[in-house]
Amino acid sequence: MSQKTVLIVYAHQSPGSFNAAVRNVTVKALEEQGCRVIMSDLYAMNFRANATYDDIIGDWKNPELFQYGEETMHAWKEGRLSEDIVAEQNKIKEADLVIFQFPLYWFSVPAIMKGWMDRVLTQGFAFSLEKMYNNGVFKDKKAMLSFSTGAMPTMFRPDGINGDINVTLWPLQNGILHFCGFQVLAPQIFWCPVHSPHVARTAMLEGWQARLKGLFAERPLTFAPCEVTHSWHF
Ligand SMILES: Cc1cc2nc3c(=O)[nH]c(=O)nc-3n(C[C@H](O)[C@H](O)[C@H](O)COP(=O)(O)OP(=O)(O)OC[C@H]3O[C@@H](n4cnc5c(N)ncnc54)[C@H](O)[C@@H]3O)c2cc1C
């Protein structure tokens, strides 16, 4: 098997956090398997989350009305995207697998990670009107969410107070990752480490370490069938 490259997009402020411990386990286990691991430690990089004019070098195509999606698509085609975006896009190009590691914030990723998605997954680079979902740009790559919660698992059941976790994850897993073509692996969820005893947290880390051994052989999740014709006409 050829060497796999794994990109970890990581969002936690504290090196002593549970998420940092998960990240460290991931790096060690993957490197022991012979993988090459590259990292985007978003807070440490002070990664800018806002999608703004500054993402484009040079003149805008339409100075009358700034449309971020259009302008960044042209800038990508013409090599005029800002340096920090290009650096992240190059990491995705190298990666066979992208792991997003984060604490769940407001039923989603922390803003700094959402900003990474907004800014790095540029139209043209990550998707187009022709290339999306099963036919998406990254169809030969895998991606997954690995995150911790404050909630207990029972709270995220279909009959729980938060509702089904799969509903919470649909926009991220289907609307972003699968939309860009990634084969999405089942999420790794670390339930409520803050209120778990140390021994339970250790067991969660060991469970993840064991899963990592077979990660590349896992079957991806399935989403809505793509045979259904879609149209951009309203
Ligand atoms: C803005 C915001 C929004 C939020 N929204 C939600 C939400 O919508 N839904 C939800 O469920 N939660 C939510 N939360 C809670 C959040 O998801 C949790 O606080 C977070 O997931 C906990 O992860 P952590 O890495 O920060 O834990 P930490 O607090 O860093 O760690 C938990 C414990 O693990 C210990 N630990 C560290 N390393 C190790 C190790 N190697 N082995 C064993 N133990 C270790 C730490 O010492 C600590 O005692 C939100 C929090 C914030 C701030």
From TrEMBL:
Its cofactor is FAD; Zn(2+). It is found in: Cytoplasm. It is an enzyme of class 1 (oxidoreductase). Its main location: cytoplasm. Its EC number is 1.10.5.1. It comes from the Eukaryota. Residues 4-191 form the Flavodoxin-like fold domain. It catalyses: 1-(beta-D-ribofuranosyl)-1,4-dihydronicotinamide + a quinone + H(+) = beta-nicotinamide D-riboside + a quinol. One of its GO terms (molecular function) is NAD(P)H dehydrogenase (quinone) activity. The keyword Ribosomal protein does not apply. One of its GO terms (cellular component) is cytosol. Keywords: Cytoplasm, FAD, Flavoprotein, Metal-binding, Oxidoreductase, Phosphoprotein, Zinc. Belongs to the NAD(P)H dehydrogenase (quinone) family. Homodimer. The enzyme apparently serves as a quinone reductase in connection with conjugation reactions of hydroquinones involved in detoxification pathways as well as in biosynthetic processes such as the vitamin K-dependent gamma-carboxylation of glutamate residues in prothrombin synthesis. This is Ribosyldihydronicotinamide dehydrogenase [quinone]. It comes from Myripristis murdjan.
